[in-house]
Amino acid sequence: MATFLICHGAWSAGWAWKKMRALLGASGHTVFTPSYTGMGERAHLSGPMVDLETHIQDVLGVIEYEALTDIVLVGHSYGGMVATGVADRVPGHIRHLVYLDAFVPSDGQSLDDLRGGETAATVEGWLVPPMPSAPDTSPEDIAWSAPRRRHQPVRTFGQKLRLRNPGMPAFGRTYVWCTKKGPGDVFTQLAERFREDAAWRFVEMDASHSPNITAPEALAVVLEASASF
C-alpha cells in the first residue's frame, strides 16, 4: 500500500480531492490532501505576502509532523510547482513523483514563466480570480466546487522556484497529460517534452484538467499504477 501526498492546484484546496480520498482509501492507501495557506478552509490566512515558498512549507510541514516517508507525491496543475519544491528539499522521503497535468519548473522558473511570461490579472492588486471549471464538469460538481474555489495570491504565480538539489532525482517520475481540452492547452508543451523521455513514465488520460473531480475512478487507476514504479 502507498502513502499519497497531494499538492493541489490553484484556487483549490484539499476538499477538491474528497472523491480521491475515498477511492484510494478504499484500496488501503493512505492519502493526505493538505490545503495551502490562504486556500480552502485556510482562506482566512490569505494575504499579499503568501507566495510559492509559503505553499512549499505547508506541505513540508505535513511531511515533518506526520513523519511521512516513501511518499507518492502528486502535483496537480499549479501543484507541480509546489511538488517540485517539496521533492527538492526532501528527496529521500519520495518514492515517486506524479505530475498531473501540471507545471514542471526548472531552477529559477516561476509559473508565469512557464505560461510564457504572462502576468495574471488581479483583483485588488494581489488576488487572481479562479478560471472557469472544465465544460464537462457535471452540474452537481459545479454546485459543489464553485462556491469553494478561492482567489489565489498572485505571488504564488510570480515567485521563481529556487532548487537546492538540481540534477537527476533518485526517485521515479510520471507525467500525466489530460487530453480532453481545447486549443491553447499550456500543458501540451510539457507532454511533448516528456512523452519520449526515457527517464519519465508518460500517461495520457482521456479527461479534462481536473480528473480528481470529473474522472476520479480513472485517475485512481493511474495513481495506483504510479505507486509501483
Commentary on this structure:
By secondary structure, this protein is of the alpha/beta class. The protein has helices at residues 18-26, 52-65, 79-89, 111-114, 139-145, 155-158, 188-194, 211-214, 216-226; strands spanning 3-7, 30-32, 71-76, 94-100, 127-128, 152-153, 172-178, 200-205. It has one domain (3-226): Alpha/Beta hydrolase fold, catalytic domain (Rossmann fold, 3-Layer(aba) Sandwich), CATH 3.40.50.1820. It is built from 9 helices and 8 strands. The strands form 2 sheets. Strands 2-1-3-4-7-8 form a 6-stranded parallel sheet, with helices on both faces. Strand 3 (71-76), helix 3 (79-89) and strand 4 form a beta-alpha-beta unit. Helix 1 (18-26) crosses helix 9 and helix 2 (52-65) crosses helix 3.
Features:
two-stranded antiparallel ribbon, alpha/beta, 9 helices, Rossmann fold, globular, 229 residues
Reading the helices and strands in chain order gives: EHEHEHEHEHEHEHEHH
- Give the total of domains: 1
CATH level-two architecture: 3-Layer(aba) Sandwich
Strand percentage: 15-25%
Task: Give the helix proportion (percent range).
Answer: 25-40%
What is Rg?
16 Å
**Anisotropy-based shape:** globular
Q: Tell me, rounded to a whole number, the average pLDDT.
A: 95
How far the N terminus sits from the C terminus, by CA atoms, comes to 13 Å
Under CATH at level 1, the class stands as Alpha Beta
Number of strands: 8
Give start-end ranges of low-pLDDT stretches.
none
Major beta sheet summary: 6 strands, parallel
Instruction: Please name the fourth-level CATH homologous superfamily.
Output: Alpha/Beta hydrolase fold, catalytic domain
Name the strands of the widest sheet in spatial order.
2-1-3-4-7-8
> Which secondary-structure class do the elements indicate?
alpha/beta
What is the count of helical runs?
9
